[in-house]
Amino acid sequence: MLAIRIASTGGPAVLEATEVETPSPVAGQILIRHEAIGLNYIDTYHRSGLYPLKLPSGIGLEAAGSVEAVGDGVTRFKVGDRVAYNGTIGAYAEAAVVPAKRAVKVPDGVSLETAAAAMLKGMTAEFLVRRCFHVKPDDRVLIHAAAGGVGQILVQWCKALGATVIATAGSESKLELARQLGADHVIDYGHEDVAVRVNDFTNGQGVAVVYDGVGKDTWVGSLKSLGRRGVMVTFGNASGPVPAFAPLELSAKSLFVTRPKLFDYIATTQELDESAEALFAVLCSGAVKIDIGQTFPLVEARAAHEALEGRKTTGATLLIP
Q1: Labelling 28: which of 43, 85, 239, 254 has CA 20 to 30 A away?
Q2: Count: domains in the chain
Q3: How far apart are the C-alpha atoms of 213 and 40, rounded to whole Å?
Q4: How many CA atoms lie within 13 A of 65 on its CB side?
């Protein structure tokens, strides 16, 4: 089968398309024949070495397809089931073996393409708005990179929960997309002072929570945008890691800062199933729609990474085997 592998870390050029033997599931595993593979920013962290992998390695963390074979002892799935997974390295391939306890069934109302685009981004949004910080009606929230894959889901989900959404993006077209998704206010973070604009929109009260997947470039403005006892959720490093800071800096408004990871919120099979159930429910209801902005053939994974890091993508990106 075709698979994308890395033997060293670096830029997109380290992604190598190669032919490998199709794996067979052992006890507790299932073999999934992929129909679509999700591309995520964390993939670039693995490729670059920011999040180290044992090399050589496969790459990619999420995909959806059909169960082709099951290992001994597997009762959770049967051959032919429509399934999706995240968190198992090696998704950039035509097929993969995955622990049965780390995959979920995809309901009939959700396409496999949508599932592949939604597992990591959608479950990230789920834990961010329901568990990391519980967004409530009338909360004011600030969402950075609102036209990105996670950002689009966050805007829609927060609006469905009754929040007032302030969204940032880096171009007028992306700001317009955030408006269409339901954002109440938008800010061009490349040309406007985010904290000043948030102050204007909130009558000086600030926001209850900031969801920031950008990192270094938005850190200072994010902290200044929070209201008293506000929560800073920094969950990504698209512009680089946030700078070191002294805890005393948080004392002016008794702020909280967290750097969460999805996999600590879906650590058990029960948590995984509950997160998937909540995600698929908002997808089936129409409250959240997944925008698949672009697709690339699996063999063109390098071009996909170049587009993602060049901020030339909107919404979700899929690799198609």
Answers
A1: 43
A2: 2
A3: 12
A4: 26
Has residue 278 been placed in a domain?
no
Q: Burial of 136 by CB count in 10 Å (0-12 exposed, 13-18 middle, 19+ buried)? A: exposed
Q: Which residues contact 14 (CB under 8 A, 6 or more apart)?
A: 6, 7, 8, 47
What averages of pLDDT result for each successive group of 10 residues across the chain (321 residues)? 98 97 97 97 92 95 98 97 96 98 96 95 96 96 92 96 96 93 95 95 97 89 96 86 90 96 95 97 95 94 94 87 96
Report the C-alpha gap between 315 and 146 in whole angstroms. 9
Which of 32, 33, 43 shows the shortest CA–CA distance to 9?
43
Tokens in use for 10? 């670096």
Q: Classify 104 as helix, strand or coil.
A: strand
Question: Quick one: pLDDT at residue 57?
Answer: 97
Between CA 177 and CA 183 the distance in angstroms is 9
Q: Are residues 219 and 111 in the same domain?
A: no
Q: For residue 297, what are the domain limits?
A: 2-118+290-320
For residue 37, give the amino acid letter: I
**Residue 284 is assigned to a structural domain of this protein:** no
In this structure, the answer to whether residues 114 and 20 fall within a common structural domain is yes
Examine the domain organization and report whether 71 and 145 are in the same domain. Answer: no
Q: Please state the pTM of the whole predicted model.
A: 0.90
Q: Encoding tokens for residue 107?
A: 């309901």
